[in-house]
């Protein structure tokens, strides 16, 4: 039936159906979109949709026929299935009742299980939360403990440890729990704590710098006392040595003690800087700034402050030169300052450098030498100058023991030595003047052997003729001679005191002693003798005694040479040995005294001549010499008896000078222009006077 119907379709219809076949295939496919397919039908040809609808109706009818055919084929099976279904409906209803009952019982039983399950779930959630909380607390507790430790360290001022704790917090602990707010607060607070630590440590450092100014004097005093003890010990040791070798000190304030002799340091106990000063603020501040990466700022600040303090320490008191204690305090402060610097230099790494301390010391050395040069120039007391010299030596030795160069200080001591010699010369000038003023200018009487030995123990006098004489007897010189000799030796001792401890050879010391002694003889003693000779109250007897005294002092000069040689052990035959100029000094003084004798003798003759009262008109002479002339002759006789103690040439010259001056004066009397006439009696009287003079001197 269907096949016959298909045969009745015209060919054009077949072509349309063939053309729309693809469209139908696409429409029957469930995977392709219909919009595009339907659009192609309407867009293809005019009236194509009409033909398409017709073909679609045909297509639907064909499918309906196929469905009907299939239903007819399966209809019997469907009927059988319905029959079977009806049979099982009763069983299904019964089963449905059973299932419903079972479901009800199951629901009743499940409610309790569900409740218990929910409780288990809730407990599991709580357990998981607790586990998570414990885990988080285990992470947070170390952070809190470290922060608590940090607070304790800050309260106990253990700032360096606190910085280490901060570093651990930042790098290890806080990153583990950084998502928690309290950790963020901690992290934000740490930089502020660092700044607080910097401020506190800097405040401690400022307190230390202020404190060290007060302790510098004590540190320096202790170090210089130890240096003085070492010097005393060395002076004992050097009594057995011939040289003046310099040994380094045994004292130490920084623990770097040189080799110790005979257990001295072990017996006395050597102080260290830490015994006197707490340096922990410096170390703490240095470590803190190093950890914080700001070490350079700290170093610059410390050095700048110490330079300021150095300038204050080097500023002397206005009246420092008045007492030795002023100088001692000045030196103590400087020694204390530089011993602290030396300790910091060796106990820290890089805070101070050797170049910095050398620069600071050179600056200080220039200031010290200028101050000492200025203030010592005001000292007129040799004892004070000597004490100053000893302080400078101890000061130099103390600092030299710590590596500071002190050559310029010893050069300064040579300048002060010249000043010391000047003060000695002034002091001994007063001593010499006092000796001359108290001298009686008469030979020394000795009553016993003890008195004689007492004199020759003070003055090298040897005379065989006098030694043979019985006691009592007289020595030719006056009391001032042994006193002058003793004082010259005392001057040599005083000059030697300054030359000691200058680390110079004995040859140099010998040269210094001889030069200073020469100054004493040629300038001071010579000046005193010249002034003495010129004094109006010094008569002929005193001048004669002065000549005798200078002769014996001149002879004693060789003993002064030997005295210096015994002190220094330097042979006088050494090429560069300076000779004493005492011979020329006493010769000049003696020549001056001789000249003064001649002058005073002539003045005395003039005084007697002025007493002459000749009557030039007298008729005849008195028959005897004039009274004034007899007095003059008696004076000259007694005076010439005193001259017997003088060397023969001097006495002879004095007599010749006196006679010549007398004859000249008598001649001038006759040739006086005011004398108009002379009687024969006056000539005879004058002749008697001249004859009297001739008789007395023949």
From TrEMBL:
Domain Exocyst complex subunit EXOC6/Sec15 C-terminal: 409-694
Gene Ontology, cellular component aspect: exocyst; plasma membrane
Entry keyword set: Exocytosis, Transport
InterPro entries in the record: EXOC6/Sec15 (IPR007225), EXOC6/Sec15_C (IPR046361), EXOC6/Sec15_C_dom1 (IPR042045), EXOC6_Sec15_N (IPR048359), EXOC6PINT-1/Sec15/Tip20_C_dom2 (IPR042044)
Highest rank taxon of the organism: Eukaryota
Gene3D superfamilies: Dsl1p vesicle tethering complex, Tip20p subunit, domain D, Exocyst complex subunit Sec15 C-terminal domain, N-terminal subdomain
GO process annotations (BP): Golgi to plasma membrane transport; intracellular protein transport; vesicle tethering involved in exocytosis
Keyword Transport (UniProt): yes
Ranges where the Exocyst complex component EXOC6/Sec15 N-terminal domain occurs: 55-224
Coiled-coil residue spans: none
Protein task: Component of the exocyst complex involved in the docking of exocytic vesicles with fusion sites on the plasma membrane.
UniProt xrefs under PANTHER family: EXOCYST COMPLEX COMPONENT 6, SEC15
Family, similarity comment: Belongs to the SEC15 family.
Protein name in the entry: Exocyst complex component
Annotated organism of origin: Oncorhynchus kisutch (Coho salmon)
């Amino acid at each position: 039936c269907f096949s016959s119907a298909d045969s009745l379709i015209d060919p054009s219809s077949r072509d349309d159906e063939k053309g729309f076949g693809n469209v139908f295939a696409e429409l029957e496919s469930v995977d392709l979109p219909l919009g595009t397919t339907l659009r192609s039908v309407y867009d293809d040809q005019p009236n194509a949709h009409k033909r398409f609808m017709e073909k679609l109706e045909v297509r639907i009818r064909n499918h309906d026929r196929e469905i009907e055919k299939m239903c007819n084929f399966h209809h019997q099976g469907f009927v059988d299935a319905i029959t079977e279904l009806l049979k099982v409906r009763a069983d299904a209803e019964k089963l449905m009742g059973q299932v419903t009952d079972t479901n009800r019982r199951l629901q009743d039983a499940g409610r309790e299980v569900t409740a218990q399950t929910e409780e288990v779930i809730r407990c599991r959630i709580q357990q998981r939360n607790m586990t998570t909380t414990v885990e988080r607390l285990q992470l947070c507790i170390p952070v809190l403990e470290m922060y608590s430790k940090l607070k304790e360290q800050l309260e106990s001022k253990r700032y360096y440890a606190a910085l280490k704790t901060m570093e651990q917090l930042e790098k290890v602990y806080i990153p583990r729990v950084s998502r928690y707010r309290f950790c963020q607060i901690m992290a934000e607070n740490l930089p502020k704590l660092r700044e607080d630590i910097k401020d506190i440590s800097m405040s401690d450092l400022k307190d230390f710098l202020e404190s060290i100014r007060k302790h510098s004097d004590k540190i320096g005093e202790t170090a210089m006392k130890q240096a003085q003890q070492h010097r005393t010990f060395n002076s004992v040791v050097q009594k057995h040595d011939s040289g003046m070798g310099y040994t380094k000190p045994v004292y130490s304030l920084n623990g770097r003690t040189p080799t110790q002799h005979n257990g001295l340091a072990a017996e006395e106990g050597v102080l260290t800087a830490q015994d006197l000063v707490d340096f922990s603020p410096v170390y703490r501040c240095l470590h803190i700034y190093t950890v914080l990466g700001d070490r350079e700022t700290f170093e610059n600040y410390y050095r700048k402050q110490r330079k300021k303090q150095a300038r204050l320490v080097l500023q002397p008191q206005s009246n420092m030169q008045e007492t030795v204690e002023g100088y001692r305090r000045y030196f103590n402060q400087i020694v204390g300052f530089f011993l602290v610097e030396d300790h910091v230099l060796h106990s820290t790494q890089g805070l101070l450098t050797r170049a910095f301390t050398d620069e600071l010391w050179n600056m200080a050395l220039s200031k010290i030498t200028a101050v000492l040069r200025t203030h010592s120039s005001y000292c007129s007391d040799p004892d004070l100058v000597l004490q100053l010299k000893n302080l400078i030596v101890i000061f130099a030795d103390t600092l030299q023991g710590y590596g500071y160069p002190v050559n310029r200080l010893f050069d300064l001591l040579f300048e002060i030595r010249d000043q010391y010699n000047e003060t000695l010369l002034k002091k001994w000038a007063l001593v010499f003047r006092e000796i001359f003023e108290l001298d009686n200018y008469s030979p020394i009487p000795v009553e016993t052997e003890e008195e004689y030995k007492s004199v020759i123990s003070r003055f090298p006098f040897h005379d065989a003729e006098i030694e043979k004489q019985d006691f009592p007897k007289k020595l030719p010189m006056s009391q001032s001679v042994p006193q002058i000799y003793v004082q010259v030796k005392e001057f040599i001792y005083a000059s030697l005191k300054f030359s000691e401890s200058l680390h110079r050879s004995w040859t140099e010391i010998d040269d210094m002693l001889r030069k200073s002694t020469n100054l004493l003889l040629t300038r001071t003693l010579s000046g005193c003798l010249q002034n003495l000779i010129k004094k109006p109250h010094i008569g002929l007897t005193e001048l004669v005694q002065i000549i005798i005294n200078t002769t014996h002092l001149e002879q004693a000069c060789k003993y002064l040479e030997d005295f210096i040689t015994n002190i220094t052990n330097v042979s006088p035959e050494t090429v560069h040995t300076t000779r004493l100029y005492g011979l020329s000094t006493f010769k000049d003084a003696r020549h001056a005294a001789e000249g003064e004798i001649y002058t005073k003798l002539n003045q005395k003759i003039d005084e007697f001549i002025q007493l002459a009262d000749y009557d030039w008109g007298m008729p005849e002479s008195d028959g005897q010499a004039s009274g004034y002339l007899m007095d003059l002759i008696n004076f000259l006789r007694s005076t010439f008896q005193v001259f017997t103690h003088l060397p023969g040439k001097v006495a002879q010259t004095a007599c010749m000078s006196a006679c010549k001056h007398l004859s000249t004066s008598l001649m001038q009397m006759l040739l006086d222009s005011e004398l108009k006439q002379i009687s024969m009696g006056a000539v005879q009287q004058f002749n008697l006077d001249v004859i009297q003079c001739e008789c007395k001197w023949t």
